Structures are given as C-alpha cells and as structure tokens.
Amino acid sequence: MKKRNFTIGMAGHIDHGKTALTKALTKTDTDRLKEEKERKISIELGFAPLKLKDTDTHVSIVDVPGHERFIRQMIAGVAGIDLVIITVAADEGIMPQTKEHIDILSLLDIKQAMIVITKIDKVDHELLELVKDDVQQFFQGSYFSQSPVILVDSLSGKGISELKERIEVQLKNTPSRKSHSPFRMPIDQVFTMKGIGSVVRGTIYEGTIRKGERFFVLPGQAKEAKARQIQVHNQEVEEAFAGQRTAINISGVSREDLDRGDVLVKNPMYFEESDTIDLSLQLLEDIKYPVKQRAPIKFHSGANEVYGKIVFFDRNEVQQAKEEILCQVRLQEPIVINRGDRFILRRATPVETLGGGWVINPDGEKYRFGNETIQKLQQLKEGTPESLVLQLLQEEKWVEHADLMRRLSLSQTALDHILHEQIEKGQAVQIEGYYSTSDIIKEVKAHLFSKLSAFHEDYPLKEGVNKPELLQSDDTPDNVLEKLINQWISEKELKQYQQYISLYSFSPAMPPEWQKRMENVIHHIFEDQIQVKEWITYLEKEGIPKELHEDFRNFLISHKMAYPLTDKHLIHSRTLDVQARRLSENTDEYFTLKEAKEAWDISRKYLIPLLELMDALHFTERVDGDRRWICRPN
C-alpha cells in the first residue's frame, strides 16, 4: 500500500490545552524553549509524530501558539496542514483567539476539521453540557458546522483513544499532497546545531527531497545548497515527501542567508517570485475600521509575513463586503508564491486580521483603476486551467514549459495533459521548446509576409531580406522563427537565395519607372566592350538616383548580366563570352600575357583585370607567370 503523509494543526485560544492534547496523543512535549516552560505558553511552533494503527499513514502534529502576539507563527503553522483540531477549553468556552483562529482557518480554506472540547475534568456535567451547546451553536452556519465535536481530558486520558480513531477515519477520506509536483518547502524555522551546522524546518508542500540532493533557496538570487541530512521527527530518512514535517541539515548556504519565509525548491524556473500579486479577497465581517485604498497591510502566505499596501480597482475604501473583492497587494519585497496559494491579510496598525483568500495571478502588473481591470481579473479568477494556458500563451506569445508551470502553478502532469490536448485540437503549437497558439503563428506569418512584401516593393532589385536581419526584426525567438521560415520554404510560400529570403512569387526586376534608363546603361556597357568606363559614369549619364546604384550593380551581377571587372568597372556578360572565345581561338593550352594582349588588342589597364576575372570564373588558371586553359568556351 502506498504511504500517505499528513500534517495536523492544533489551533485555539491560549491555555486551551493544545500542547497538553498534543502530548496526550503523541507522548511528546512540544514546548521546547526555556521561556515556554517558564511562562507556560507556546511561543514557537511545536511538532510531534502521531502514530496510528494504519502504519502506512504518517502524521505530524503542529502545535501553534494561541497568544494573539504570535499570530504570524500560528499562520505559518497551519498554512501547510491537511486537518485541523480546534480546541475549546471546557472551563472557558469560546474566546477571542478561538474566533480569530477559526477565521484564519476558514480563509485558508482548510476544510477538514475536528472540534475538541478539552479539560472536561475541570467542570461538572451540567456546565460541560452548556459549553458543548455553546460550541455547537457558535459553529452552526460556519465553515466548520459539520465538524465532529469530541470531548477529552488530556491529563486523565479521557476521550483520547476516541479522538485518535476519529482522526484515522477522517484522514482516510483526505487526499494526499502531490509528491510528483516540483519540490517546494517553505521554511518556518531556522537554527544552528553545534557540530551539525544550519538546519531548516518546514512542511513539504509539494514534491520530494532526497539526502544528498541539491536545491535552491529563494527568493532573490537563487542560492544553491545541499541536503546533508534529512530528519522526520528526529528520525533520519533517505527521502522526505509532500505532507511531511521535515528538518534538513543544509550545506552551501550560511545561517545568515536563511530566513523564515524563504522557500526551498529544486528548480527555480518552476516558481514565481513577485512583489505584485493579484488576489481574490474575502474580508471578515467584523473588522473594526474601513480598509482604505493603498492602506499598509501585512501579507501572510506560508511562512511569509511581508509588509505592503493594498490596491483596489473598483473602490477607494471598504469595511463590509460579503462578495469577494478582486484587488492587488504590492509588497515591499518579493516572495515565492503560486496561483491558488492561500493568504491572510492583517492590518499593519492597529493590528487585526482583515481577511484572506487566494492568489489568482502571482505575477501582477500595475493596472488602471476601473471596470476593465476588474473584468480582466475576473477572467483570471474564473479561468479553467485550459483557458488560462491559452490566455497566457496568447499574451506572452512564446513561453517555455518551465515558465508555464511557474506562471500557472500547474503540476507537470496536468500541464502536459493540457498542452497535448490543445496541440491535438490545433489551438496550441510547440516549436523548438517553446509553446504558443495557432493564432500567434498566423500573426507572425502575416507580419513576416507583409514585411517581405513591403521590402520587395521598396527594393525590387534585391533578392530579398538578409536572413539574419529578418530574424532580428521580430520578437519571436530566433530558433523558432528560423524553423517557421524553413517550413514555409518547404511549403513553397517563401524561397531562399544564398542568405536572402523572399516571397516565393517574387523575382527581382528593374523598377518600371527606371527600367528604360537601366536598359540604356546595360546597352552602353555592351557597346564599350572590354574598355568600359567607370560604372558610375553610365549611371550619372542616365540620371539614375544614387540610392539605386548599389542595388542595380548587384542585380546585374547576381543575374549574370554583367561581371565585376574592378571595383569601379563592370563588363557585359556577352562581351566576356565573345572575348573568351576570341582568346581561345588565338592561343594554345598555355599562353602568356603578351599573347593575350595581342589577341584582345587592349592596354594593360584592362588586360590584367580581365584575365583575373577569367581565373575567378575557372576558365583559366595561373601557372607561374603564364595561364592555362581549364575550360575553353564553346
């Protein structure tokens, strides 16, 4: 049978028996600190293993502080739990921190709960019945109205066995956390042990970690570390899994570089770091003062407590709102957070819990105030994973797999399934490791073809756009665009000549408005045979604009209508053919400069360049100071 790992949280008012109940269930005293012993209150999170009859179910109990001053620790402790035990002391009943803890648990969407009335031996039967009625009435209509109520006394052991049995039954119907997702463990405790070094503790939200594995500490510049040793409740293990309370002795990162709220991950690419976060917020009904636009707040998520401000887009203040509010927080420092993560908002001063909810977009932007932004956030909130994948691809155009996982907080399995389906439907595409939509491909194609068409119109003499320039002119990744261009070439929509890309239907041609004059230039070059004038002389005589000079020259050469005799001279191709045959008829296999000069009857000014051109065209080759025919013209 597959092993299952769960974390149970103990919540409730201070001195309502959370630590004693934990000890009764686990035989472990979770108050470790000297100050906790002296003051008889929990200050830091306490942890203990709970052994059940089902040996394949591994359970950790987190004992959270009940005092209002330690709400941060309480939120950090319950953020990663699968089941909560809410304690209410029989001799006191519902108290302020009972309510605040319940509010926080509700806002964190912790659905599995048990209500345990503790210290039942301290009251008589009649008072116990009254407390029980009060508790049931208090929870009626609340988030935990269907949760079982169990009576215990931790000192005498009354009800403890029944509670254990109820826990075991409830966990059988509780889904396990995702061990196949990318590893994520928020740190809620950091300390140093003599002879051991730096140790961090936390509940593994997702994934697994093995002894000896390397991982990274976020946020900020990813700091690489190594798991030297892993313990689960003081027992050394080779591997820890999602849902387990875990301590890791790490190397590679100093104690000074580790803080509560940091997150351990194996691959930073899968996780978002952000200080601007879009939220779906539910305010509590009984907050004391209105929450104003840009009011300072404390944002709690996982083990984080970060200061920031709240930004509304459809109001300037609010005190009572039954509906969810779509808004944003802008934090003073970035945190690691995913879509779907739960959060708690508390007022910075005077301190009180304002509300909570879930992250609809971990990578928010600075939007305009107004209905348009609310509609955008509503779409993000209501979007199915499939629609969110397509929406992100459409907005970002080209996204790598790891970036999709990070931005959308989807598991690899879920994302791969969605991408496969969308590609099969023809809505998404994968090219060179990037994903996009078929609509983006159409946009890229339309933009590229329009660009080429405009280029052909402006530069009709050119073969096309230089390929490297074409790749740089688009915001599509170079390797993706090159793949698309090659595809369109194979489909005969584009063509390539050397390094130039053009539309398949395009062929370079002389501009109609200059065609007659350009034909005159060609005619005059032919008339002058070998002893041509400088190229620019012909162009200026015909009044051809300077901006066309170079293109016209390249056009004649690329179409083999002329050959470059020197940098400043062109010779007509027919002239070269005639003169090559003339030379061939008047020389043997080997011939000298003198023989060539006599055959052509030209000066040395033209003789040497013409012979070098014939060498370049492989008609002839130099042998010492003479020439030899390689290929005689017909």
Give a description of the structure.
The longest helix has 21 residues, at 438-458. Helix 8 packs across helix 10 (412-425). Strands 7, 8, 9, 11, 12, 13, 15 and 16 form an eight-stranded antiparallel beta sheet that branches. A six-stranded mixed beta sheet has the order 2-3-1-4-5-6, sandwiched between helices. Residues 33-44 have low confidence and may be disordered. It contains 19 helices and 35 strands. 34% of the residues lie in helices and 28% in strands. The chain is elongated and about 135 Å long. It folds into five domains: 4-172, P-loop containing nucleotide triphosphate hydrolases (Rossmann fold); 184-269, Elongation Factor Tu (Ef-tu), domain 3; 272-379, Translation factors (Elongation Factor Tu (Ef-tu), domain 3), CATH 2.40.30.10; 383-509, Arc Repressor Mutant, subunit A (Orthogonal Bundle); 512-629, Arc Repressor Mutant, subunit A. The protein is an alpha+beta fold and 634 residues long.
